[in-house]
Amino acid sequence: MTQLQAYFGDTGVSREAFCNVSVWTCPKKLAMALKVARAIVAAVAVAFAAYQAASVFAPLVLALFIIGITWPLQRWLQSRMPKLIALAITLIVIVAVGVAFASLIAWGFGRVGHALMSDAARYQALYDNLVSWLDSHGISVAGLWAEHFNVRWLLNKAQYIAGRINSTLAFWLITLTYVILGLLEVDDIRRKVETLRNREAARVILEGSVATAVKFRKYLLVRTQMSVLTGLFVGLFALATGLQFAAEWGVIAFALNYIPFIGPFIATLFPTLLAMTHFDTWQGVVGTFICLNIIQFVIGSYVEPRLSGSVLSISPFVVLFTIFFWTFVWGLFGTFIGVPIALAILTFCEQHPSSRWLADLLGGPVQAEKTRA
Question: Could you tell me the residue ranges of all domains in the chain?
Fold first, then answer.
């Protein structure tokens, strides 16, 4: 202590100021550093648990998302009829919407896939021309293609797809079970939370849950509106340019638009692939790709933010990171549910002063302007 005090004395710092720094400021900074370290360790532990137990946590998260969306319907119905009858009607609506959406996707991809398979000879010719051009420039891809893409590879992929279909059915059955139990216990859980001795924790849980459910419904409404708009414009563009399967491309764009960033980009690749055999010049193919991306960009970057407003304001960087992260953790399902998970986390962070800074930091431009105001 004497050497440190001498050092601070040489630098012009008084003993009282040194004591204030060493006794008060340093412990506070140390406590804050420990809190941050614990938060990072907890986040890594949760992510690892979610990755290792995906079959347990993924259906639970989707069930909570569905409960947040459908609870107003369930509450309205059970105020007019017995709870079990109201639950049955709500489940019928959920299953009907899911089956209709899946059937629409299967119809669109099935029709386009059949057309692509029927044009396999033309795509083979395009591939041969591309390989010849690459070989003439010193790039050999034929050996690499033969090594990795063969009959065994096709059989493995077919087995993988069959396994994924079976696991998807089991996934949805588990999710529906969670939804049934959750809708039955919403009122009981709310009453239990209201009786907690920690009033601040009870307030954060209740207000955070309500706000999160509101954002879930707003998010799904906005995504549906933008998906319909995107599918409509893509279908009209395909119809105007004479591209085959205009209705199917609209349906595919509608479905993939529920996945931010990645889905709209993929939705532009499939029509471009068909355009390779439809147009005689590469300018037509490139023009198709550019026009489709312009449609996706205008709707996603200009129209959607004005409809969602500050309610769904998240940094685009956070959205993209969330999509990639949850895709790595939970696969295709994580791609769809990643943004709602980020919405839920930031919404709960807004409810408490100690974590509100995180919501302000990761919020989008609209949220930032609102905070400064």
Answer: 1-34, 57-185, 196-373
